[in-house]
Known about the structure:
With about 250 residues, this protein is of the alpha+beta class. It has five helices and nine strands, in the order αβββββββααβαβα.
Amino acid sequence: MKNGPKSYSTFSCLLALLFISYATPTAQTDSVAIDSAAMLIPLKITAEDFKYDRGETIELTWEPAESSNRELIGGYEIYRAEVPSDSFVSIGFTGPDMARYKDNGVVGEKSYRYKVAAVVADVPYLSEATPPVAPSMELVNFNLANLFIIGCLIAGAVIYFIAHARRGKKLFIRKIAGLEAIDEAIGRATEMGRPILFVPGINDMDDVQTIAGITLLGRVAKVVADYDIKINMPVSRSIVMTTARETIKEA
């Protein structure tokens, strides 16, 4: 009986040591996890007006976590607050490998602030708020400067040749070899006393090939009228027949 209290005290000490040995690593692990998550908070966050738009987009960029720590991050959540309010509202979510976000839900000339949160185990770790930024509309898109230069060159060439023709100077127009071949074929048919067979196709007037054939028929009909020979034109659509008749009459 004298050793009873000592045995009980010794047993209690052993239980306390056992509890401490199990509890201490867990506490250290939790502390390390929290410290690691705090280190994964996005840094160097910038919010800028997206260039060359109608003033409806703000682009966010930030410095992502190191590749060795990205597996802890489930993604980045974007928060926005309209100046002067400090109430930040979630507006979007991106993957852990993303370091850029475009906010298309802003209004021009209004200022906004942003925060980016690294989500670790469903817990957001918010960054500092960005300075206020307001979207604006750009009148000129300098990314399309090459198209502007090409358009100016084409317009300048058209204006130059129009002015050149008004002065009475002759312009060189390259002849199309296909049209020259048609004239030769009509001439040979005239020499042989044979009629001309012109086929515009089997489609209706809503087909591009048929429209091109009717356009070419106008030139062929003029040459046929000059040579005073007969032209035969089989068609499979009534509208094409009516259009062809009017084209030949005008020629």
